[in-house]
Specification:
The chain has about 350 residues and is mainly beta. It has a single domain (about 5-345), classed as AttH-like domain (AttH-like fold). The chain is built from three helices and 23 strands. It has helices at about 65-70, 130-135, 165-170, and strands at about 25-35, 40-50, 75-85, 90-95, 100-105, 110-115, 115-120, 120-130, 145-160, 175-195, 195-200, 210-215, 220-225, 230, 245-250, 250-255, 255, 260-270, 270, 275-280, 290, 305-320, 325-345. The strands form three sheets. Strands 1, 2, 3, 4, 5, 6, 7, 8, 9, 10, 11 and 12 form a twelve-stranded antiparallel sheet that branches. Strand 3 and strand 4 (about 90-95) form a beta hairpin.
Length: about 350
């Protein structure tokens, strides 16, 4: 839909049945500049909550534990997940018991665990995993490394998926996986320090993105593409007020799987179009992560969920006539720093 902001969709959703079998996460991805060299590098920061009603004194991590799965034990924790893309890609995970997390559940949301914080307007935190810890705790599904961050958030353009994530459908948990992108174009200001190297976040170059997902399980297939680092191939000019966002899979409504479906929006220089969009996008596997998520059921079925932040490609935006009989080319756009994600359920390798 059009650029409609609704921070009530960003509130914490794990109440009722989802408190015992549900997840809710806030995701931010961005491009930062090396403070010394100016080199651009893509990063992400995510706060992932799961099954608060099952909280114990320590985080309950079930993935990679078949005995726990057979016993019907389900996970419960806050996972602070931070990572980076490129040939040196990595993902770092830090877990908290939800008993030790302060969550302001209503809008505007706020979540605080020790020195890790996230809200509509700011996030900061720190994760350090030594090589010895990563080897000793395979259940963490974490690489070794250290990353800290502190930046302000301004969500400029929203992707509102419509009634599907509205109050009624949320109340009855109609969909297995919900999506809202309050800041599909976001401006970040601050810094990231990765393994001792400082990176700067600037609104004009950060290519910022903020969204959230929640529900009782994940979709398969899982698709996501987005960027606001766009340039017109017709005029050669950078598109300062534009962003595209595409996502979807095979949604389930009350356990009934629908046909594969994509949702998307191209907000082009301040205007939404009833559009036909041809996309050709590439993200090299060597730059991507096999990103790790555990479903609230306790099963890890996404074992090849490839996730990247430096895809490139072209998009042709066509405007349709009133009756859809004629298409007019609005622009051909070159995109960089594209957030890319694709995966389908499969057995572990």
């Amino acid at each position: 839909m059009a650029n409609i902001h609704d921070i009530t969709r960003d509130r914490w959703m794990l109440y009722g049945p989802l408190s015992r079998k549900g997840y809710d996460w806030w995701w931010h991805s961005m491009t930062a500049e090396n403070a010394e060299t100016g080199e651009l590098k893509p990063f992400y920061v995510e706060f992932f909550t799961c099954n608060p009603a099952l909280a114990e004194d320590e985080p309950v991590i079930v993935w990679n534990d078949p005995e726990a799965q057979k016993a019907g034990r389900r996970p419960s924790y806050l996972m602070v997940n931070a990572g980076f893309w490129g040939e040196d890609h990595g993902q770092l995970h830090r877990f908290f018991s939800l008993k030790d997390v302060d969550i302001h559940a209503t809008a505007p949301y706020r979540i605080v665990a020790d020195d890790c914080k996230c809200s509509e307007v700011h996030t900061e935190g720190h994760i350090k995993v030594t090589p010895e810890e990563a080897a000793a705790h395979p259940e963490w599904m974490s690489d070794a490394g250290e990353m800290s961050w502190k930046f302000d958030i301004r969500k400029e353009i929203a992707f509102h998926v419509g009634y599907g994530a509205g109050k009624f459908f949320r109340a009855i948990n109609a969909f297995e996986m919900f999506w809202h992108a309050e800041g599909m174009k976001s401006a970040f200001t601050g810094e990231i320090v990765l393994n001792g190297v400082k990176y700067i976040l600037r609104p004009e170059t950060c290519n910022g993105y903020s969204d959230k997902n929640w529900g009782g399980d994940f979709t398969s297939p899982w698709v996501w593409l987005s960027s606001n680092n766009l340039r017109s191939m017709i005029t050669g000019k950078k598109l300062e007020n534009s962003v595209f966002n595409i996502g979807g899979g095979r949604p389930k409504v009350f356990f009934l799987a629908l046909d594969r479906k994509l949702l998307g929006e191209f907000y082009y220089e301040g205007k939404d179009y009833e559009f036909k969009l041809d996309t050709q996008i590439r993200c090299y596997k060597k730059d991507m992560l096999n990103i790790k998520y555990e479903a609230p059921t306790g099963y890890k079925r996404h074992n090849r969920l490839w996730n990247g932040g430096n895809g490139t490609g072209t998009l042709k935006l066509y405007k349709r006539s009133l009756f859809g009989r004629k298409e007019t080319l609005i622009d051909e756009v070159y995109a960089e720093g594209i957030g890319c994600e694709y995966g389908e359920y499969c057995d572990p390798e």
